[in-house]
Design the sequence.
């Protein structure tokens, strides 16, 4: 193709893509926000422990700047495909909503990159061929890494902070470039799985895959412009998009908490549920492990109190805490609605919701979502245990090197989880990777941890196998006796509920279970601790 033909094709694709994006989602959304919530608070944030805020008008002003600068970057570098992703290397999440809204207004798919992880980013760059990256100038280490393969094209001010736009060389190859156009033109954002259960996979998420998720949860949680939603999930973890879009589609406010603050349970608690001012947060989404870093006494006295500001507490990404845990930490007169969320990144985050209430089942599928249980031969299981798959006719994402021509709806994705189904009720059993054979018996590591967590005095537990040694790590309540005197009681419970092969060889106490960057229990670190003991 001649250069003129390619440019004409690019302009046509840009026009049709932007029309498609605007008419489906952003035009109605942004128009509603501008007219109804212009003078409403969009973001709460902290500067030196002082609570500050930005209005929606500030958010739009920032988004317009970002949109204009990105548009200029693409116009001046017309060798760059308009459909490739905008990479976001941002440490301070205060600026994320304006940058994301700027990308949405411009019809640009985006992907968050890891400010700490070179390997993580290299995989994204290689697979998605990211030509444009937006970053903060204050992140000197990030900028240093960019200089290896990108050049600084532009920089501009956003709320007293300097943002930079970095450009790389164009992607070469006509046929491959056209294929990328066909796939990326339908995308909203991309995210990379953590790789905790295998090789990291890049998931490209179309708008029509994530929007039903947001609409269903917004209605289920009854979110309005009066709500304040906690934004504390790492942006490389897809529940971040749920928090952001729930606020953006309802005119609600976001309370932004940094990852540094969140890393300290005490600082995190003081920011979200302070004692020196009225708490703001009404909707909070966390992994169970992050939530359970607060002690039961802290939760009962600060979070799930009689007059708690928190309307909705949604926990997902791990096994929902036991009724015994909630009996310790939920005030009898507390009215917070509890939800158990379940899903996988490959089907754009959440797939089912249980609640309100203490429900250990997986609940009901979200809109446009299908659940299916299969046995080892691939036959559907209607009553019994099997492998859980999540599918949809419309909530379809591209995983890894897939393209649309390879997928025929409905598309089902394996979750890697074993569930028991009866009368349409799905109960989580455990990760397939956590089902092992020991002494000729089947052992479910998740079940060992679940039984241990039911023991009075245990806040949380996790079980791992290393070098034929079965180790149980427990986090005890503050007022519980030390493990030496507690071990007999716990062992008696485990022996009464589990087969002999499932009883741990070692029970070890930890102050906190180690977490990975997405807030889930880090099994690799536990195995390392176990190896040091044995």
Sequence:
């Amino acid at each position: 193709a001649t250069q003129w033909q390619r440019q004409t094709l690019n302009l046509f694709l840009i026009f049709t893509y932007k029309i498609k994006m605007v008419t489906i989602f952003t035009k109605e959304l942004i128009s509603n926000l501008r007219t109804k919530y212009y003078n409403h608070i969009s973001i709460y944030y902290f500067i030196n422990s002082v609570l500050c805020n930005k209005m929606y008008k500030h958010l739009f002003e920032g988004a317009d700047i970002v949109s204009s600068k990105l548009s200029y970057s693409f116009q001046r570098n017309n060798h760059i495909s308009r459909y490739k992703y905008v990479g976001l290397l941002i440490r301070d999440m205060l600026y994320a909503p304006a940058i994301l809204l700027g990308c949405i207004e411009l019809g640009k798919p985006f992907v968050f990159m890891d400010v700490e992880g070179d390997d993580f980013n290299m995989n994204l760059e290689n697979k998605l061929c990211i030509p444009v990256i937006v970053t903060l100038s204050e992140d000197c280490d990030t900028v240093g890494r960019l200089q290896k393969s990108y050049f600084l094209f532009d920089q501009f001010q956003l709320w007293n902070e300097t943002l930079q736009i970095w450009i790389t060389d164009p992607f070469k190859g006509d046929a491959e470039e056209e294929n990328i156009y066909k796939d990326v033109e339908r995308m909203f954002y991309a995210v990379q799985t953590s790789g905790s259960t295998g090789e990291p996979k890049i998931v490209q998420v179309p708008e029509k895959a994530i929007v039903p998720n947001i609409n269903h949860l917004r209605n289920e949680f009854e979110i309005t412009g009066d709500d304040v939603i906690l934004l504390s999930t790492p942006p490389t973890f897809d529940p971040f998009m749920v928090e952001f879009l729930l606020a953006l589609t309802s005119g609600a406010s976001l309370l932004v908490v940094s990852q540094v603050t969140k890393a300290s349970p005490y600082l995190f608690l003081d920011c979200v549920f302070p004692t020196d001012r009225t708490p703001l947060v009404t909707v909070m989404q966390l992994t169970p492990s992050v939530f359970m870093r607060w002690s039961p006494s802290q939760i009962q006295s600060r979070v799930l109190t009689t007059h708690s500001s928190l309307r909705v507490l949604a926990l997902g990404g791990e096994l929902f805490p036991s009724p015994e845990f909630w009996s310790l930490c939920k005030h009898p007169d507390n009215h917070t609605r509890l939800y158990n969320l379940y899903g996988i990144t490959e089907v754009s985050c959440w797939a089912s919701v249980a609640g309100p209430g203490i429900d250990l089942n997986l609940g009901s599928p979200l809109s446009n979502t299908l659940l299916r249980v299969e046995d080892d031969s691939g036959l559907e299981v209607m009553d019994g245990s099997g492998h859980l798959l999540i599918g949809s006719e419309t909530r379809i994402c591209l995983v890894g090197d897939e393209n649309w021509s390879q997928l025929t709806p409905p598309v089902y994705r394996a979750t890697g989880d074993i569930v028991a189904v009866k009368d349409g009720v799905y109960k989580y059993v455990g990760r397939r990777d956590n089902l092992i054979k020991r002494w000729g018996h089947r052992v479910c590591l998740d079940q060992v941890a679940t039984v241990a967590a039911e023991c009075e005095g245990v806040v949380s537990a996790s079980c791992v196998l290393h070098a034929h040694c079965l180790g149980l790590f427990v986090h005890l309540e503050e007022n519980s006796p030390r493990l030496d005197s507690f071990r007999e009681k716990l062992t008696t419970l485990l022996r009464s509920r589990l087969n002999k092969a499932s009883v741990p060889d070692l029970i070890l106490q930890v102050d906190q279970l180690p977490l990975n960057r997405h807030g889930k229990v880090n099994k690799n670190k536990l195995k390392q601790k176990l190896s040091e003991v044995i």
Notes: Residues 3-36 form the longest helix (34 residues). The CA atoms of residues 443 and 502 lie 5 Å apart. The domain at 439-533 is CATH 3.30.300.30 (GMP Synthetase; Chain A, domain 3). The first strand starts at residue 41 and ends at 47.
